[in-house]
Amino acid sequence: MGAYIIKRIAIGIVTLFLVATITFFLMYLVPGGPFLSEKAPSKQTIEALEKKYGLDQPVYIQYINYMKGLLKLDLGPSLKMRGRDVAEVIKTRFPVSAKLGGIAMLLAICIGIPMGTFSAINRGKWFDSIVMIICTLGIAVPGFVVATVLMYFFGVTLHLLPTYGLSSPAHYILPVTALAFYPTAYISRLMRSSMLDVLGQDYMRTAKAKGLSQFKSLFKHALRNAVLPIITYLGPALAYILTGSLVVEKIFTIPGLGRQFVGSITDRDYPLIMGTTIFLAFLEYRNL
What we know:
- This protein is mainly alpha-helical.
- It has a domain at about 90-255: Orthogonal Bundle (MetI-like fold).
- About 75% of the residues lie in helices and about 0% in strands.
- The protein has twelve helices and no strands.
- The longest helix is centred in the middle third of the chain and has 36 residues, at about 85-120.
């Protein structure tokens, strides 16, 4: 057990190191800079800002300095949000994304497990066919497409739901649905497959032969065994929701970490890009 934990920690450190290194050098391949805008400041101002944040140094020197700070858990200051550190931005923005992702995960579980279960019980019938179509669409269609379609129909066309911010419970409906669509589909398919396997086991046939009702045999014997693969999937699913909320938060103008991350890319806020990427990579690895 101890060797396994040490191995996991070592792999995690190497993974984060590679993510940080690749992200750092990819940033400098993108044209533009953090201090360029429509009203570009003077050359002297840009040079002074670059000197202040160490951007006037060679790239490899900047990389070494950043990695030294990272070893001290110092993610550096944001270049666009003056006076704020990257760690502070993550600390204030991540709870919004975590709450949104938690609600989406809960919704996916509450819908996916019953849908997969009843699909397995009604195998080959119309309900099963509808569920499989929904699951295929949910797995194949990207989350930002689902978010755009939901916004267009329920927000722009029908004017039934708000499409930006999180100022009321109604504001959560569209972004939560967009985030939960893929894990709901995956959980449903996984639950259907697992339930069909359990229903074909000898102990289920024995329970049926002894006269046990379908309801009792299903919830007392089948469900507790069929749900085990779902439990193992919850970690990666939660990581997917948290990292998959990047574009969804941007679409629905949600003040979470995802929207901040997308904004940092367009603004060329290098420290914020690095800090957010490393933080999300840490969450992704920890939930695998």
